[in-house]
Amino acid sequence: MRVVSGIDAAGKLLNRRTGFQATDPAVEQSVRAIIEQVRAGGDKILKELTAKYDGARLDRIEVTAEEIQKARNAIDPGLLDALETAAGQITSYHSEQFTAIKSAVDAMGSRQLLRPLDRVGVYAPGGKAFYPSTVLMTAIPAREAGVKEVILATPPGSDGRIPLPTLAAAAIAGVDRVFAVGGAQAVAALAYGTETIPQVDKICGPGNVYVMTAKKMVFGHVAIDGLQGPSEVLIIADETTDPVDCAADILAQAEHDPLAQSVLVTTSHKLAGNVLGELKLRMRENPRHMIIEQSLEQRGIIAVVASLEEAVELANLYAPEHLCFLAASAGDYLASLRHAGCIFIGEKATVAVGDYVAGPSHALPTSGTARFSSPLNIWDFVKITDVVNVDADMIFKYGPAAVTIARAEGLENHARAIEARYRGVSNG
């Protein structure tokens, strides 16, 4: 990991207000071609691309409802219990959020209508690995928001099958339909539809650079939740922090992907040295040590600063996906932490709990977009329709102002449309 001292040096490394890095033109070209192929060729092209990129030959794209339900009973009972526990936490959190949102809308009376989306597509990465947690974290908030139909797209393994834990998670989350297709081709199918896969109103969920590029390209035809990835953590620590805890969270972040970024901002040179020592000690024993080494060597940063106030300033500058505040006085700084996808505090704080069982969705804004974006939540799956009741009282009180503005803008027929309503309107 790169080690720097001082807020100025650290700020140069952590300032991301320049925005997204440009997408590789070769990736964009490849994704654009895939999208056009899927729009033109439908299911046939999906099967060809799945064979090409996933090494899987599919007889059919859709997983049957029977297969989904059977998976729930086919996985290890301990894993089933863990997934159901996580689902309970996620459901509880988003149910409470929906109640609060609905209460706020209801307070507006008949002036606002809350409507869930009709159909949402959730994407879960797969192929060499599988992520049942992502299925829970995306599908359950949609369900709690009242989305009428939730469909899942996820890549099959080389055997053409979706791993049983992923299907079990789909059953637990109440997913309506599951399709064994991944990558940019899955995004295209969800956005434009094929003979088998229906068009959706919104696409949610993380993925690799091809998936994110595809989401960006189809945005406007459908909605998207954001462009998540690669994963990242910023840890704030002081001399009271256990270096073993710091190292454990850095390793947990780095094992995601060679492009994952782990940042430690600390007020203690001693802690920085001890964390480096722990990382070296635990690196080789790790089953994903090659991924971790690439991540930390290329993107890992340790910044030593003068105070926790400076650490908070850097955190706001970086706007991390995950912010883990491991200093004992974390609660004192919570109000000052303006930009982060999810903040972890408490004596046993660790991002890994949030990845699975804390309750809030782990689909979070990355790449500095936490400055203006929120985690996946109920608002992603509902929309507001305003209702304007124009009665005689409104015309009398506010019509003249509207007429004046309309004529100032040169829109004479707007003014006349309002004046036409003056007939029979009088004060009282």
TrEMBL record:
NAD(+) binds at residues 123, 185, 208. Pathway: Amino-acid biosynthesis; L-histidine biosynthesis; L-histidine from 5-phospho-alpha-D-ribose 1-diphosphate: step 9/9. Pfam families: Histidinol_dh. Zn(2+) binds at residues 253, 256, 355, 414. Its cofactor is Zn(2+). The active site is at 321 (proton acceptor), 322 (proton acceptor). Binds 1 zinc ion per subunit. It is an enzyme of class 1 (oxidoreductase). Its EC number is 1.1.1.23. Keywords: Amino-acid biosynthesis, Histidine biosynthesis, Metal-binding, NAD, Oxidoreductase, Zinc. Gene3D superfamilies: 1.20.5.1300, Nitrogenase molybdenum iron protein domain. SUPFAM superfamilies: ALDH-like (SSF53720). It catalyses: L-histidinol + 2 NAD(+) + H2O = L-histidine + 2 NADH + 3 H(+). Substrate binds at residues 231, 253, 256, 322, 355, 409, 414. GO terms for molecular function: histidinol dehydrogenase activity. NCBIfam families: hisD. Catalyzes the sequential NAD-dependent oxidations of L-histidinol to L-histidinaldehyde and then to L-histidine. PANTHER family: HISTIDINE BIOSYNTHESIS TRIFUNCTIONAL PROTEIN (PTHR21256:SF2), HISTIDINOL DEHYDROGENASE HDH (PTHR21256). Belongs to the histidinol dehydrogenase family. This is Histidinol dehydrogenase. It comes from Candidatus Dehalogenimonas loeffleri.
